[in-house]
Amino acid sequence: MLYILLLIGAILVLLIPSTMLKLAVSVVVKEFRRQNAVSPENTISKTDLGIMPQTGINRFVNRRDYKAQALQALIQAEIVQVTEEGRLYLLEEKLESTRWAKK
After folding, report:
1. Domain containing 46 — which CATH number?
2. In this structure, is residue 8 part of a structural domain?
3. Which of 27, 37, 45, 85 has the most Cβ atoms closer than 10 angstroms to its Cβ?
4. Contact by Cβ (8 Å): 86, 71
5. How many domains in the chain?
6. What range defines the domain where residue 54 resides?
7. pTM, whole model, 2 decimals?
8. Is residue 10 part of a domain?
9. 3-state secondary structure at position 42
10. Low-confidence ranges of the chain (pLDDT < 70)
11. Is residue 32 in some structural domain?
12. Are 81 and 40 in contact (CB under 8 A)?
């Protein structure tokens, strides 16, 4: 019985973060679209996306916010581009060919 509970716990520990990250990617992409930040002419900041650095107290009190990780994953996948000024925009063409595209 203990082994079963440990197995279930291990599965949840692996599944919950990946599920939360996938949901956060969807939220971040929707926000880029809502603000029409889909070209170098229309860019937004991390603050415009609602991504704020979490302080130690916030991490303890509030549930974890996966939007910053989602944004980082999108930048690494070159779906979100960063301008020289540090502003951001979404490349819809790149998004469509990834695992995060809506099928």
Report:
1. 1.10.10
2. no
3. 37
4. no
5. 1
6. 21-96
7. 0.77
8. no
9. strand
10. 5-16, 53-63, 99-103
11. yes
12. yes
